[in-house]
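Need residues for this backbone.
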């Protein structure tokens, strides 16, 4: 059995962030977890900023650092294309929250989190694109 490749882990990280965003904006703080809602340290409202900082640091570090290893190891471009498309998922979730579902941004903390997650998704897309261009001699057409 083949172990997950770095490209697949990158795709799973993007899908995981999108799922976390869906949880954060649509589920958290609505009493879904019953008496545990807001009482577990990681999910308490007082820790939104620090939890978001750790999440963003882990996500961007993995996504941007894995690019050179993924592009060197992948024989085909299919995983790279799927990885780029998967990076759009967190962006689309937060764009829907910011521009279509204003009711989910009830507090200033949620608005700030949405803006931070939007910026992180843009940095992931643009940074990944720039890294891929820089690593590909054929795309940039660098003379030897």
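Answer:
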């Amino acid at each position: 059995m083949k172990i997950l490749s770095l490209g697949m882990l990158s795709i799973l990280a993007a899908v995981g962030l999108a799922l976390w965003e869906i949880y954060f904006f649509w589920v958290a703080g609505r009493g879904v977890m019953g008496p545990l809602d807001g009482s577990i340290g990681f999910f308490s409202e007082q820790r939104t900023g620090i939890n978001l900082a750790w999440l963003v640091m882990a996500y961007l570090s993995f996504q941007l650092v894995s690019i050179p290893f993924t592009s060197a190891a992948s024989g085909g471009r299919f995983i790279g294309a799927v990885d780029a498309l998967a990076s759009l998922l967190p962006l689309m979730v937060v764009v829907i929250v910011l521009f279509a579902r204003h009711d989910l941004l009830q507090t200033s903390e949620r608005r700030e989190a949405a803006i931070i997650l939007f910026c992180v998704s843009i940095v992931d897309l643009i940074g990944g694109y720039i890294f891929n261009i820089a690593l590909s001699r054929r795309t940039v057409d660098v003379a030897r």
